[in-house]
Backbone:
C-alpha cells in the first residue's frame, strides 16, 4: 500500500494536508491489488496530533479482486508504552512482544493465543496473551491506545464516526494489543469470515473514503496520575464526535456537513399477542445501508452505514448521511427479527426526510409458550462460567466439555433457567471427539492389512 507519488494538497498557516498516491495500471496485474490508492495526512494548527484517511478506487475495466482486511497499523516504542486502555473497565499493563516468542511463550489453540511461561516480567507468568481479547464492537470502538510513564505521554487512536466500517454497529474489530500495536480498522473479516470479504467482479467500479481517523497525543507534567491521559483522551474523543463530519479534509470525495442529508421518523412494533395497540420501538437500532434484503446490513461492506438509537418512544433521527440510495433497517432489543423499510431512500445534499411512523410486525405464528434467552444479539444473559483470572476469557469454550463430559446439556422448560443452565456458546462436545478416538483405536487394532475399506471423518454433532 506504499505510495509512489507525493503531493502537498494544502499548505497554509492553519493546515497542512499531504497526499501519497499509487495509481494502478494493467502492467501491475498479478503484482499489486488493482486499486488507485490515495493516503492523506492532515495537521491543524493547535491540534495535538494528526488525521489520516484513505481513498480507494477500482475502475470498471480493471480485473476482479478481493479485500480481506485494510487498516492503519502503528507500532510504538516497546521501551516506553507498557499500559494499554480500551475502555474504563478494559485497561492494564501489558506483556512485551518478546514474551510471545517460543523461548518465553507457548502457542495455544490458535497462533494469536500464547501462554506466557517465562515472561520478562514474572507477574505475567501463566497468563494468556491474545489480541482477540481486546476486540470491540464498532459502536463502542471510539478511542483506544497506550500510555508511557517515562515520559508521561499518551498515544490514542480516535474514530469519530464508523460510517465507513463494514458490518454495522455490532461488528467486532481489533483495537490495540501487544506490540505495542494500535490499529485503525477500515475493513475487517474478523468474526465474520467469507460473508464480509470485499469481493469485486469484473466490470465493477467502486470508490470509498475510509476515515479520517485522529491520532491524538497528550502529555502530563511529572507527578501527575498517568491515567489522567486516558480521561483526557475520552474528552478529546467526545469533541471529535461532535465536530463530525470534519470541515477540513481537502478531498472532494469526503462530503462536508452541508453536502449531506438526514432522515427521521418513529419506529412502532405491531404485535397483537403483546398489545392491542402499536408499541414504541424503545431503544431500537435504526440505520441506513446500501439497498439489500432484510438484515443484509450485517454483511454489507462496499458502501457506508449510518446508525442511531431510537428514544423510549421510538423516535429516531439519523444525521450527516452521505448522498446516495439506501434502505432503512432496524431491530429492537427484546424483539425477534429485523425490520426493513419498503422503499429505497435517496439522500440528496441538504435533504431532511421524515418517513413518519414506520411499523414493524415481528414474525410470529401464535402466542409465546416459552423462550430461552433474550433476542438482543448478545449472549450476556446465558451462563458464562468464571474464567481463570490469568487466562481472562481465553478457553471458556473448553468449560462446556468439563461441565458435560458424557453428553450435551439437557434444558428442561419450566424448571431450568437460561442464566445458569444454558451455556453461552454452542461448541463441540467431547462426545464426538471420543467417538472418533475410539474408531481410530479400532482401526489401529485391525491393522493395515484389513480386507475391507473404512474411512473415519469428523462428524458435526448438533
Residues:
Amino acid at each position: 500500500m506504499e505510495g509512489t507519488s507525493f503531493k502537498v494538497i494544502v499548505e497554509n498557516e492553519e493546515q497542512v494536508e499531504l497526499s501519497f498516491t499509487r495509481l494502478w495500471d494493467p502492467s501491475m496485474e498479478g503484482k499489486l491489488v488493482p486499486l488507485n490508492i490515495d493516503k492523506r495526512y492532515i495537521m491543524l494548527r493547535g491540534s495535538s496530533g494528526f488525521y489520516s484517511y484513505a481513498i480507494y478506487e477500482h475502475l470498471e475495466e480493471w480485473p476482479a479482486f478481493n479485500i480481506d482486511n485494510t487498516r492503519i497499523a502503528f507500532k510504538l516504542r516497546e521501551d516506553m508504552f507498557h499500559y494499554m486502555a480500551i475502555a474504563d473497565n478494559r485497561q492494564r499493563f501489558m506483556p512485551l512482544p518478546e514474551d510471545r516468542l517460543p523461548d518465553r511463550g507457548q502457542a495455544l489453540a490458535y497462533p494469536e493465543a500464547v501462554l506466557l511461561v517465562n515472561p520478562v516480567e514474572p507477574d505475567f507468568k501463566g497468563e494468556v496473551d491474545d489480541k482477540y481479547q481486546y476486540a470491540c464492537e464498532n459502536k463502542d470502538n471510539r478511542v483506544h491506545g497506550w500510555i508511557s510513564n517515562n515520559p508521561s505521554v499518551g498515544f490514542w487512536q480516535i474514530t469519530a464516526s464508523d460510517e465507513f466500517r463494514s458490518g454495522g454497529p455490532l461488528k467486532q474489530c481489533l483495537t490495540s494489543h501487544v506490540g505495542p500495536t494500535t490499529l485503525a480498522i477500515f475493513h475487517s473479516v474478523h468474526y465474520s469470515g467469507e460473508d464480509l470479504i470485499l469481493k469485486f467482479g469484473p466490470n465493477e467500479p467502486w470508490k470509498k473514503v475510509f476515515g479520517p481517523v485522529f491520532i491524538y497525543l497528550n502529555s502530563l507534567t511529572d507527578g501527575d496520575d498517568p491515567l489522567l491521559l486516558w480521561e483526557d483522551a475520552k474528552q478529546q474523543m467526545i469533541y471529535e464526535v461532535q465536530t463530525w463530519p470534519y470541515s477540513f479534509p481537502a478531498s472532494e470525495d469526503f462530503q462536508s456537513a452541508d453536502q449531506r442529508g438526514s432522515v427521521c421518523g418513529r419506529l412502532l412494533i405491531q404485535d397483537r399477542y403483546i398489545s392491542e395497540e402499536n408499541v414504541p420501538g424503545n431503544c431500537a437500532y435504526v440505520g441506513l445501508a446500501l439497498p439489500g434484503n432484510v438484515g443484509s446490513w450485517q454483511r454489507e461492506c462496499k458502501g457506508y452505514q449510518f446508525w442511531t438509537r431510537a428514544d423510549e418512544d421510538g423516535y429516531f433521527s439519523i444525521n450527516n448521511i452521505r448522498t446516495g440510495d439506501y434502505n432503512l433497517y432496524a431491530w429492537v432489543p427484546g424483539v425477534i427479527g429485523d425490520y426493513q423499510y419498503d422503499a429505497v431512500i435517496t439522500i440528496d445534499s441538504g435533504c431532511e426526510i421524515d418517513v413518519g411512523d414506520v411499523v414493524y410486525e415481528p414474525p410470529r405464528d401464535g402466542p409465546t409458550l416459552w423462550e430461552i434467552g433474550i433476542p438482543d444479539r448478545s449472549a450476556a444473559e446465558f451462563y458464562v462460567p468464571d474464567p481463570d483470572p490469568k487466562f481472562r476469557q481465553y478457553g471458556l469454550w473448553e468449560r462446556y466439555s468439563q461441565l458435560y463430559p458424557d453428553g450435551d446439556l439437557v434444558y428442561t422448560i419450566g424448571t431450568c433457567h437460561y442464566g445458569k443452565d444454558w451455556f453461552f456458546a454452542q461448541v463441540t462436545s467431547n462426545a464426538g471427539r471420543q467417538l472418533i478416538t475410539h474408531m481410530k483405536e479400532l482401526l489401529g487394532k485391525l491393522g493395515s492389512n484389513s480386507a475391507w475399506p473404512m474411512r473415519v471423518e469428523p462428524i458435526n454433532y448438533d
Observations:
- Residues 430-446 form the longest helix (17 residues).
- The mean pLDDT is 92.
- The chain has four helices and 28 strands.
